[in-house]
Amino acid sequence: MALLRRNGASGQVECGDKFRRVRLDQTVETAEVKTIYRDLLGIPHVRFELNLEHPYRGAQREGLRALALSVFASHFPERVPA
């Protein structure tokens, strides 16, 4: 599966892309896309590695996660420039 459109966004999601969001407590969550796949019902999902950067606790690796593409796009709106 090459490219998938992000719902509500003009970009596409590809393996290797990075996206981030800043939480209310100023923790920065960065998601690196590892794979894109469809489940048995045909719903596109993103498997990604999640890393956190806490303002007072430093960096923390959270490991692999998976979300439906539409949920991923709403949770991680900002693409990290390469």
Key descriptive features of the protein:
82 residues, mainly beta, 5-stranded antiparallel beta sheet, two-stranded antiparallel ribbon, 1 helix, 7 strands, elongated
Protein architecture, described:
The protein has one domain. The chain is built from one helix and seven strands. The protein has one helix at 69-75, and strands at residues 4-5, 12-13, 18-22, 28-38, 44-54, 58-68, 78-79. The chain has a five-stranded antiparallel sheet. Strand 5 (44-54) and strand 6 form a beta hairpin. The longest helix is centred in the last third of the chain and has 7 residues, at 69-75. The protein is elongated, with a radius of gyration of 13 Å.
Quick structural overview:
By secondary structure, this protein is mainly β.
Q: Please compute the radius of gyration using only Cα atoms.
A: 13 Å
N-to-C series of helices and strands? EEEEEEHE
| Main beta-sheet strand count, sense and barrel state | 5 strands, antiparallel
Number of helices: 1
Poorly predicted sequence stretches spanning 5 or more consecutive residues: 1-10
Which sequence of strands runs across the widest sheet? 6-5-4-3-7
- Residue-averaged pLDDT: 88
Write the layout of secondary structure elements.
Layout: E1 4-5, E2 12-13, E3 18-22, E4 28-38, E5 44-54, E6 58-68, H1 69-75, E7 78-79
Antiparallel strand pairs: 1-2, 3-4, 3-7, 4-5, 5-6
